[in-house]
Amino acid sequence: MINKNRILLLVWVLILLASAVWVGKTLKVNSDLGQFMPQEDTIENQLMLAAVKSGPGTSVLMLGLSAKKSSQLTSLELSRANKKLARQFRKNKRVRQVINGELRFSKEHKKFLMQYHWLLNTRLDKETFSHANISQRMHYVLEQLRSPAPLIDKSLVPVDPLGSIIQVLRGWASKVRPSREHGVWFSRDKQQTLMFVHTRAGGFEINKQQALIKDINKAFTALGNDKIKLTISGPGYYAVEYRRIIREDIVRLSISAGIFISLMLILVYRAITPLMLALMPLATAALAGIIAVSTVYGHIHGITLAFGVTLVGVTIDYPIHLFTHLRNKGSALVTMRGIWPTLRLGVLTTGIGFTAMLLAGFEGLKQLAVFSICGLFAAALTTRYLLPRVVSPHYHYQSWSGLERLTDGIVRLTAKLPWAIALVVVSALIWLLMQPQLTDHDPKKLTPLTSEHKKIDKKLRSIIGTSDTRFLMTVTGKSVQQILVTLEKLEPALNKLVDKKIIGSYILASRYLPSIKKQKYRQSLLPENDTLKTVFQHAVTGTIFNIDSFQVFFDNVKTAKNLPPLTYERVMKTPLSIQVGGLFHLRTQGRGWMVLVPLQKIKKREELLTWAEQQNIPGLRVMDVRSKATTAIQTYSNEAIQLIAWGSIIIVLVLWLGLRSIRDVLRVALPIVSSLILTIATWNLFGVKLNIFHLVSLLLVIGIGIDYALFFIRRTNEEDHHLDYMAVWVSNLTTVVVFGFLFFAYPLVLQAVGGTVAMGALYAYIISASVATKTQAI
């Protein structure tokens, strides 16, 4: 005789396996952390996202080479290692540019500079081609050529005797930069040699950054010098490290929690079958969530995947309720029909709680909401309609009498303490009302960097002279040309800031791409070929120079005078695309362009902000990124609180429709509200302010608490009440263990989620048990 239960189970397993294979082949996992940042709904958020996602510093890795503590190396040995690594990196397809202090130019760079240096030269003026200036310049060149240690490149004299190319390069060079030793960058104490690695991938394209970091470590190992220590810093590196830490912690803690829960369920049910079958709805929930998010968004974020699987882990409560209520009096189908109304109401209200996240201002949280809701309902429906049909009709739960006495004893104990519990809750509420602030919106508190990472990053940035990441200067305009004209007007004012030592230096896109108006003006300053030759002839008369030796120079000036001006589109096809592309950003919804103006070594922050307010330059903004980020986080935290409030109101309405009793609604709602108060108060007591992740976790606490409360107040016979108590106790223990393990993870995000859910679930269980009564079934 064919066993229908086993056939159905086999079909279910095969569907899950087929789904897993399909997901494995088609799933696109996104690693862009920008999805967990605010939407571009304001100009400030646009500016912040542009700077964070694709600003000039986000695609840069800072590398430092130094001797290990037990070793001694000379600066010459370190410089050789630097140059060798730089050569390897320049061959890497994942690297756009390597800057280590070497004066290296590719053929493409040299050709471009030879063509356009006159149009890019900020020092070109009416005196440049005067007889006096050329004569003075040529005498200087002559002196350098006779010197045993000339300060000019002899090969450039015939093609650029006036030194225009050098002037352009000096204009591009930052005034804040490391010292050079043996041709490469070094720290001032000569103990560390440095380099910039510009990646082709953005800082938050984690998979690509990870591949490059692997290449860097491989190249460093190939040096074969175990006396050298490699230090890496930069947004891409820390994004990769943060993901690695989260993955390792989740895997390690999930395995630990999984082993504990498996052993516990085996002990409770005295068999391995319930454990194996309980995993079926859980696996269904995870796959349903993944497929739903992938279908809606075309991809799933790695953080959504990790947290989503963790959140739907609470759906193991559904099969626990079924197995715990299986007694000799009926089949699994009959048992499920008995508990389904209560279970269904709990699922609906929990789903409503997660629905609030769909209105969040972060795409990542919206993905998490879709994942959780779809996983939740998938687990509930399969527990209702599939799981009872695959459970053997011969399986019945035989509980330990000691376990029954334990769970009954907890309920009896808490039932004697309702006023004590109420006193604690009221005291906690008063405590919270007395606190000046319960939430923390400081973005630095959410940073994944360890104190050691921060120290290394600060040191390398200080040595290399990278842009100040706290303050962001931007200029917006309808077109690139409008912005370039504004930047050219802004430059004198920025020079005054440098002179007053308010800032150390700055980077302007107009240095790399002057406005067309400025380029044409410079072309107008270039003399006609015959005029230039005449002036030059007079200037070199009586010297060793032969006028015919400078024919290439004359031809280049003639060509430059007739060149088509550089445009944004044209410069993006040149070596300057790295600099220009990292500064210019096309705004969304056809609102024009914006350009970043990186500031270096900001020494007087308040004076900088005051200066910005006094400028009458259209489109100019100087923004305190940390302050704006704090405001943005505060806005979304407030939004989360509002969503939780509205979701709670809807949940109460659904509970009333399901329970049809104001008294029962209060007996469900009061434990939930009380558990939220106690959870927040506990965090506050230990000096922890709530962030956005604490608030999102409270939604899960609400859902879990509702499930507990509903089963505690379920009207049924005394025997089933014992089973209700036991099922809720087992569910609570699994939840507290799983999320309690997460609390001991390193990342603050995992600590926030784990601690909040573990505490909230425990409080919800205790308080719900205190209102449990034994009444007749409906």
Automatic annotation (TrEMBL):
InterPro entries: MMPL_dom, Mycobact_MmpL. SUPFAM superfamilies: Multidrug efflux transporter AcrB transmembrane domain. Pfam families: MMPL. Keywords: Cell membrane, Membrane, Transmembrane, Transmembrane helix. Residues 181-391 form the Membrane transport protein MMPL domain. The keyword Aminoacyl-tRNA synthetase does not apply. PANTHER family: MEMBRANE PROTEIN MJ1562-RELATED (PTHR33406), MEMBRANE PROTEIN YDFJ (PTHR33406:SF13). This is Membrane transport protein MMPL domain-containing protein. It comes from hydrothermal vent metagenome.
